[in-house]
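Please complete every field before forwarding. Incomplete forms are returned to the sender.

SECTION A: IDENTIFIERS
Entry label: holo-375
Bound molecule: zinc ion
Molecule representation: SMILES string

SECTION B: INPUTS
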Amino acid sequence: MRAQVLEAFNEPYRLRNIPPPASPAGQDLLIRVLAASYCHTDAVLATGSRWPELPRVGSHELAGEIVEMGPEVSSSLKLKIGTKIGVPARAYRPCGHCYECQNTDGDIQGFSVYCPKAKHVGLSINGGFADYCLVDSRQVVVVPEGLMAVEVAPLMCAGFTIWCALERAGIALEENEGVGKSVAIMGAGGGLGHLGVQFAAKLGCHVAAVEAADKPLALLRNIVGRLDSPTQDRVTVVDARTQSAEEVRNQVCGEPKEGFEGESGIDAVLILSDSQSAFDFGMKLLKNHSTCVVISFPKAGFCINAQDLIFRDIKIIGSLVGRIRQLQEMMSFVVRHDIRAQIRVHPLEKVNELVKDYHSGTGGKLVVDLSLSEG
Ligand SMILES: [Zn+2]
Ligand SMILES: [Zn+2]
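SECTION C: PREDICTED COMPLEX
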């Protein structure tokens, strides 16, 4: 089968002909990949700073069609040959016995995304930049009618991560549950951000969508322009190069009354950018007793001002991908509200051009459409 293989760190992918995966064992599924998208973590993988083993077929957010099922796939999952599924970066073969696997918080018994022994498709085992891929039947979601594979793939890491981060930020993921709440998204024009803006606004939140470069700001304005009018009115697009955090806070939350300055501010900020200045800007937007959810992980980490934690009672938490319940809820929300990633598609042969686009800050999501390369 064709596969785009990372053979050396900081080198381009190589298009190779490699043997397809063996028939699925246990609870595995063999899928024919229909679409696979590129995520920031693919760029991290390519640097060698976290996953040391190569060669590797990249992409951990994909969509495909089941061609073969392992003998132990549970019938409760309602999967069969031909079912179209989305594959998020949840665990592959978690151990089933550790603390995490025994405390699944609503996920399938014995399955946890936090299992330290689990593998990850596209990171520690081969992923979606290939004709076929092995996945764990417990990590996937059935694709609802009306969504194309190239639309599903970018939802599997980018969409799912930001969806779960909104819940971590204290916003219940149901219609109108965000009404009266405000959220700021730092890096709102990127792959996760532009989906997060749509989710949060459709949930009823006021959204400060913050960016600091021309291309992602243009993408953001385009995304916001496509929202219906009451939803659109809830989004404030912010250019952090020309606006101060204080101005933005007043614009979204109104001028504070004298003596109530600490109470005026945004309820939650999601940090998607790697930059310290974005982190600092986000912290300044928050009101006292609120939450900062960190989703980016720059190599050098973030510098935190302890005074924000002590005197303003700001909580800083992180967010990984989530549970099967959240994944299913996200898929039906996407269909109900017609939420789409802004995508640019490439054939499998052109993955290195896709990577170039990524590093030039094109914004939105870059997706390999496997059907484009069949001819
Ligand atoms: Zn485990
Ligand atoms: Zn990812």
